[in-house]
Write a structure and sequence with these properties.
- By secondary structure, the chain is mainly alpha-helical.
- The chain is 72% helix and 3% strand.
- The protein has a two-stranded antiparallel ribbon with strand order 1-2.
Amino acid sequence: MSSLTTTGAPGSAPAILPRAGVSQARVLYSEWIKLRTLRSTFYTLLAAVIALIGFGTLFCAVTANRWPHMRAAEQSAFDPALTSLRGYFLAQLAIGVLGVLVMTGEYATGMIRATMSAVPRRLPVLWAKAVLYAAVTWVLTTLGALIAFLIGQAVLSSQHIETSLASPGVGRLVLGTGLYLTVVGLLGVAIGSLIRNTAGGIATVFGLLLVVPVLAEALPSSWSNAISPYLPSNAGQAVIALHQEPHTLAPWTGIGLFLLYALAALAAAAVLLKRRDT
């Protein structure tokens, strides 16, 4: 606890007044102010929600238009719930980029030195950024997934091929979309803290989510089937699959593994944050 010394009457001892110290709650509040007052936060999250809803609606509209002309094999493989949530693939890019910027933005401007001077223990800053961004991402993307699902099913109803939240596994898909995007955000924050460079952090996030799975598919099938399910994005996306494919993880096992990846990255970021200079 720090204190503030004031001067009293001449000849009297100085008065010691208590001054509020640094607490996790105060750090959370300060990081909340930063997060909600940055224009990049608003526009990037808006882009993620628009992508989630807009592309899901677009895919459903295209499918409904093509439905009478689709082959029987295509119709039998059609998944109305997943089609309305396809926008998550683009939304994850915006969420991952903003997760990186949550950390690297302060390093780019030099504001990180002021932040760490105010919070000498450093780790409360990382926890606050991660928790706040995860909470905001979860609320917005889960709501966005629900809206995308409802609009998409309304569009598909023109061909009577819609589904409902009460159908087996559909509620998990909607909830899982928000959970997957939340973990993507956490991974972005961790990578941003590890690399401290915006371009490098974004490239790393894109590489882990998009490039590595494609490279794994180029391997011999026996290797690919053994490796691909355990890659970060493939593991996380298992929760968004209505039907489990061969050589894939169970839905909750997959999202749990993806969360472990993100938490491991956060743990590494915490260790380096304590050891490195700002």
